[in-house]
Amino acid sequence: MCRRLGFALLVGVLAAALVLPPAASAQDESSSGWNPFSFLRSSFSSLRSTAARSFDAVKNTTLSVAHKVVRFAVVRSTEDEICYRIIGCFNLKAPWFTLSRPLPAPKSPDSINVEFFLYTRESASRFTIPSDVELSLQGSTFDGAKRTFFLVHGFLNSGNDEWMAKLKDAILGQVDGNVFIVNWGGGAIDPNYLQAASNTRVVGREIARLGRTLIQQHGAAAKDMHIIGHSLGAHISGYAARNITNVGRVTGMDPAGPGFEALSRTVRLNKNCATFVDALHTNARPLTQLGFGIMQTVAHVDFYLNGGEFQPGCATPSVEMPSSLTDLISLPVTALNELVSCSHTRSYHVFTEAIANTTCRFWGHKTSVARQRLKWRKSVAAEVPVKEGPCRSGKCVPIGLDTPDFPARGSFAVVTGSDSPYCLQERSKDGQSLEQLRILGYVD
Ligand SMILES: *[C@@H]1O[C@H](CO)[C@@H](O)[C@H](O)[C@H]1NC(C)=O
Ligand SMILES: *[C@@H]1O[C@H](CO)[C@@H](O)[C@H](O)[C@H]1NC(C)=O
Ligand SMILES: *[C@@H]1O[C@H](CO)[C@@H](O)[C@H](O)[C@H]1NC(C)=O
């Protein structure tokens, strides 16, 4: 607890430092009577209430944990690393913890309490595997000879959310495989985004532990594994795949931006995580402009939907713009929910529809990403896909389970409707969608 309070104070100081961008401060002060001291006061009072909530949560967890065996007890904790039984150590130095990434240490595996819900065509009801010392599949319908999918949710979600069940159904509708829904609600439902972002490392290790168990004891192959994650879950998927090694595919659905964008690739989803990595970008804007998704390319195939920043049919969130990463801590959960809704969640709606609907395809048209290097405080659309030739074979890739079968790699623009079903009517590769892209100026 002392560590936690210490952290809260540290964050306060960092928050103060981070909201004083050299370029913006002079302007802000004159135009809106901006006052660093009033900011500090309000920042500290909201940090106090966040801290108070955290103390409650810690007390509650401690009470419930007291009655069961602590399976993943801390075996070592220093300033530089924290180590747990079974899942090992986590480095708490750069690049995991830096001035621009002021994250607390990950919570314990016991309090995050990852669970795996297994579904197959043989068994419609779920088989739950708790993250115990032994990961037992006894009595399940898991078949190591088949493909295996892991679905991983993000911030403020849990494995019981409806969208995960829909994605699971879409996959089982097309593939006779094993689908694990990964529930890490105990680490994701935390008003402190920075804490949830840190907890992702523990979840990645837990998935990797199950993945390796499936390979070593149940005849599964890493190349037949496909890990699919939304938001923070996209980075978890990358960590898990890296730890398993040689995983066939990772799909990031609007990978989270805050705390990951433009930082060391070690901390985020990247091309080296799996044999094939693809990503859907639906809310790729800076946090300060109400974006929650990562803007930079992270994959072999990066799809930018409708320009990648905001999605058609989504209202602009009415949330007050956070001015820094640490500001996120003081936003109420309702505001956070609004911030991460609509455009950010469109990624999994489209991916699910792309798998379920075999007659209409979401074609990606090759584009060049305008600017790779991000100018954080400067401009809005840091990366808008622009101008590319007509859609020829080798220049088009569809969203879906068969994306890797198409040879083209790079960044791709996709146009969708504003409502479900999002897929625009069946057309040829050079048909209606190309016309739409042309109107929007993405292709010649
Ligand atoms: C802790 O438990 C108390 C009583 O069960 C409950 O009222 C409170 O909301 C809980 N706090 C948290 C943060 O879960
Ligand atoms: C993979 O996970 C194990 C523990 O589960 C850990 O000891 C090891 O350091 C991890 N490897 C990498 C590359 O993260
Ligand atoms: C596939 O998408 C098209 C276009 O959106 C839609 O008209 C059709 O009903 C969808 N089919 C299925 C099976 O969902």
Automatic annotation (TrEMBL):
Keywords: Disulfide bond, Secreted, Signal
Molecular functions per Gene Ontology: triacylglycerol lipase activity
Pfam families to which the protein is assigned, alphabetical: Lipase
Signal peptide (from-to): 1-26
Lipase domain residues: 81-407
Subcellular localization: Secreted
Domain of life, source organism: Eukaryota
Record bears the keyword Signal: yes
Major subcellular site: secreted
GO biological process: lipid catabolic process
CDD domains from the UniProt entry: Pancreat_lipase_like
Recorded family membership: Belongs to the AB hydrolase superfamily. Lipase family.
Protein name: Pancreatic triacylglycerol lipase-like
This protein's encoding gene: LOC117647088
